[in-house]
Amino acid sequence: MLAVVVRGGAVGLATPGRSWVGSRDDLAGVADRLVLWSAAGTPLLPHRPRQVWDLGAVHAVLFGGRRGDPAAVWNAVHDLPAPARSDDFSLFDSALSAVEPFSRAVRDDGSLHTDAWRFAPVQDLAALALVVQQRQEARLLALPDPRAAPTGPHLRLTTAWIESAASLLCAELEADGLPFDTVGGTALVAQLIRADDRDARDAPVLELFRGDDVDLRNPLSVRDALTRFGIDVPDTRSHRLEAYRAAHPVVDALLAWRKAERVATTYGYDWIAAHVSGGRLRGEWLSADGGAGRMTASAGLHSLPAELRPAIAADEGYVLVRADLGQVEPRVLAAVSGDRAFAAAAAQDDLYTPVATMLGVDRPTAKIAVLAAMYGQTSGAAGQALKQMDQAYPVALAFLRAAEESGRVGEDLRTHGGRLILTGGGGVGRYTRNAVVQGAAAELFKAWAAAVRNGLAGGRIVLCLHDELLLHVPVAEAGAAVGLLHSALTSTAGHWASGSGVRFVADIAVVQRWSEAKG
DNA sequence: TCGGTCACGTA
DNA sequence: CGTACGTGACCGAG
Known about the structure:
Layout: E1 2-7, E2 10-15, E3 18-22, H1 25-28, E4 34-36, E5 52-54, H2 55-63, H3 70-77, H4 116-119, H5 122-142, H6 155-176, E6 178-179, H7 182-193, H8 198-208, H9 219-227, H10 238-241, H11 249-266, H12 269-275, E7 276-277, E8 280-281, E9 285-286, E10 296-297, E11 318-325, H13 328-337, H14 340-345, H15 352-359, H16 363-375, H17 383-392, H18 394-409, E12 413-414, E13 420-421, H19 429-455, E14 460-464, E15 468-474, H20 478-496, E16 506-511
Parallel strand pairs: 1-4, 4-5
Antiparallel strand pairs: 1-2, 2-3, 6-8, 7-8, 9-10, 11-15, 11-16, 12-13, 14-15
Helix pairs in contact: 2-3, 2-5, 2-6, 6-19, 8-11, 13-19, 15-16, 16-17, 17-18, 18-19, 19-20
The structure holds a DNA duplex.
């Protein structure tokens, strides 16, 4: 284990029993087992290390929440309360370089100064990082390994490496960006918003409202105006207005206007100017949200409308390889709940077919039953299906009920990988019922992504989208990338869900543009 | 200038 | 058939 702290031009290093001041050249040779306070603040990009231990990422697994600053991370493993968050928190601000060599980073009560990262000598921070790593590791090993037939390292230790890898990957995703066809994308935006200025966009819709003084951007105003056409709705969400398309042409016009307005305001020319440069679309990435631990991205990367996806296009001589996990959440439920019957269904290419047979219903009904079970249905329609699910797969359903009960009474719980899900006092039953599935799926996905990252000979992961990976690789590497995606999934499932019997499948396609159909 | 609400895209 | 995220416009309070 080698701890590394980079602050501005200063580099601090530590191994057990020794710490020293080094230089950035020291980063070049080390590919494995780096300990970092945060991959996000460490300029490792040129070296692409294979394996890091990100203290902030592991802290989030052990203790939940969103804090990843050194003082919170240090204090937590010493059973001390988190300090108040520093307003100007910036982990490695290069502008701050004044080091006070006689300052003590650790106070007499054992807590870390909130701004120790700023004033403490970098080699001391590196030494402290190793202390935290050891304590985090001990706490992870104290958690039970939930697998039916554990193989290899303790699952919770694996989770630490995986979450760290995701954090590192996020730093790389931020820097690398998505290949973006700027000319084509700009033309696409122009076509989608049709009119350049706001009044010209509004005019045809206002016309249909026949001069009513309606504010299209004010839902209340729109609702009132629709009432005058005999359309009485509790809100004006598009899925609700969908039913009234035939009632009056104004509904159709309004919905089309909304789509154009959406692109104009969120994904228009300003968006391209702000987030695209040099043929790359970039956003900020977080390796785990505050809830179940999914990856998040800004700049709308995770909610890019399908109509704009043709703009994500491979460079000349490159292809995009898109791969998504099939039916991942029910398969994850089968694996983490230990339900042998459900796992048998999840051993098939299509999980819903054997479920349908088991329940004695058609496939669409089986799908609704499974989803209703996982997400805590509220409407009565799925009630019968749920009862059948409970009879067919009692272990899986009991697992879900237990998660829901934890949330209801305010008892924190952990995902399969060991991430703490905070219930904040209770009353969050549906949330926790979903979080144990969604969160575990996020862990499987990250494990897959990490394996792919380290296995890629050429090219890069350029997008992670919950159950989908997008790779940008040289044409000659496409075949190898497809093979890697499959083999990485097999090996990942082998250790993450070992003994479960669940099969995980990926749908993979080699394309020029993200929008292109799979298969 | 803020937090809340509505709305909508993605998984 | 629910959960979650980020984004933006508008509203009312301060």
